[in-house]
């Protein structure tokens, strides 16, 4: 996808013991076609490991209602411009 910043594979390890639905902070995954159709949502439960193709799976993180912790790792297909890493 254009503008994917070189990220190919995203992996996220969530570090949130005792996370509840009411705490929010889910990751929402979308279909590419049709656009904006929700594929699924996952809570950031402790020890959950999520992996997806960053250049093929549009996604967003919903607002959490308390501190949320995770380790995110990307497999890159090129050097990344430091200004593009958030």
List keywords for this structure.
single chain, 86 residues, mainly beta, 3-stranded antiparallel beta sheet, 0% helix
What does this structure look like?
It is a single chain. This protein has strands spanning 7-14, 27-30, 38-42, 49-53, 59-61, 70-76. With 86 residues, it is mainly β. The mean pLDDT is 88.
Any chance you could write out the topology, listing elements then pairs?
Elements: E1 7-14, E2 27-30, E3 38-42, E4 49-53, E5 59-61, E6 70-76
Antiparallel strand pairs: 1-4, 1-6, 2-3, 2-5
Largest sheet report: 3 strands, antiparallel
Computed structural class: mainly beta
Counted beta strands: 6
Task: State the share of residues found in helices, binned by percent.
Answer: under 10%
Integer-rounded radius of gyration: 14 Å
Taken in chain order, the helices and strands follow as: EEEEEE
Mass-distribution shape: globular
Distance between the termini: 18 Å
Low-confidence stretches: none
């Amino acid at each position: 996808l254009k503008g994917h910043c070189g990220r190919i594979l995203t992996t996220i390890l969530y570090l949130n013991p005792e996370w509840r639905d009411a705490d929010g902070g889910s990751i929402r995954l979308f279909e590419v076609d049709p656009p904006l159709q929700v594929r699924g949502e996952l809570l950031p439960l402790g020890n959950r490991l999520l992996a997806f193709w960053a250049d093929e799976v549009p996604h967003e993180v919903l607002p959490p209602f308390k501190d949320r912790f995770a380790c995110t790792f990307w497999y890159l297909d090129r050097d990344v411009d430091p200004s593009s890493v958030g």
